[in-house]
Please model this.
Amino acid sequence: MPRCAHTILEGRDLVVEYRIRDEPVRALDDASLTVARAEVLGIVGESGSGKSTLGLALSGALPREARIHSGEAYVEDHPVSGTGERALRELRRRRLGFVFQDPIGTLDPTARVGRQVRWALERGAAGRSRSTTSDDVHALLAQVRLPEPRAVARSYPHQLSGGMAQRVSIAIALANRPAAVIADEPTAALDASIQAEILELLVDQARRHDTAVVLMSHDLPAVRRYCDRVAVMYGGRVVEEGPTARLFENPAHPYTRALLASALGREQPGSRVEAIPGQPPVLRAAAAGCAFAPRCDSVLPDCSATRPEVHDVDGVRTLCHLPAVPVHRKDRSHA
Ligand code: ATP
Ligand code: MG
Model:
């Protein structure tokens, strides 16, 4: 089927299982999501909801113990399931970048930073005649606002602070001008005082090159600030997804409402922080109905038995049994 030219990554009805000692964990239970060219997309949800697994499935980077049980994932026009491991690795190298939580652990401890940046640049230059110079390496390190690029290039990763190492990781992830960068909690391990700077840098650099960013994060204020669109995950599904402002101002899914109340309540003095009662599920098989039903404050008789369908109201797609309420009508009723 022809796919939209603006779609960089796409997952359709993905079911992914991890198998450890023969006991399956269903990390994705019919997850669908698309990532468009140059957009910054946030993925949020409690721990275990499937954010990292979805990011890895969409980019053809699932670990060995994971298996795509059904559904499809595409990197641009390439179906992940129909592409061999070698070709997939090459595709990831050419078209994608990755930034993880622990930058020092991600970099090669045995090679100086300059060499690693050079490798990243040369991977992108494969097939082109130009060779990479030290100036190219230093220019790239300067672009990620490292104050002394020459000194950094001579260092080993363990000699850098976490923030400096994450800047190097961002430089490496973006060196090839990839179509998308998958950033899985890229600031969670960093000092709070530099988290905003690092996210700002990542988004700014990506936007310069029309690179899409998929940002998995528990930092909802940051997602609200930097992302164009947000996907909310629960129980291995994307339960709500839409433009950031609309989704934050008018969440339709009871889980999104609960998540925002619990995460953003802390931000506003005087407002109530409401912990979401109960625990997120660990699925062994497909959920019979809505996985959030046992914790939902708006539960209907159908919710535990029937899987909800998507409804789309003003660009916000919600997976819920509650009747769809157009955002503008809801606004008026509150006025
Ligand atoms: P977090 O916010 O903690 O990073 P997440 O939303 O990224 O969580 P995932 O890491 O995708 O969630 O996990 C989804 C489910 O899959 C969880 O039940 C988790 O325990 C399980 N899981 C994830 N990775 C593995 C793995 N390598 N082996 C076995 N189970 C896994
Ligand atoms: Mg994760």
User: Anything to note?
Assistant: Residues 51-52, 184, 216 surround magnesium ion (ligand 2) (CB under 6 Å). The longest helix spans residues 192-208. The CA atoms of residues 59 and 169 lie 18 Å apart.
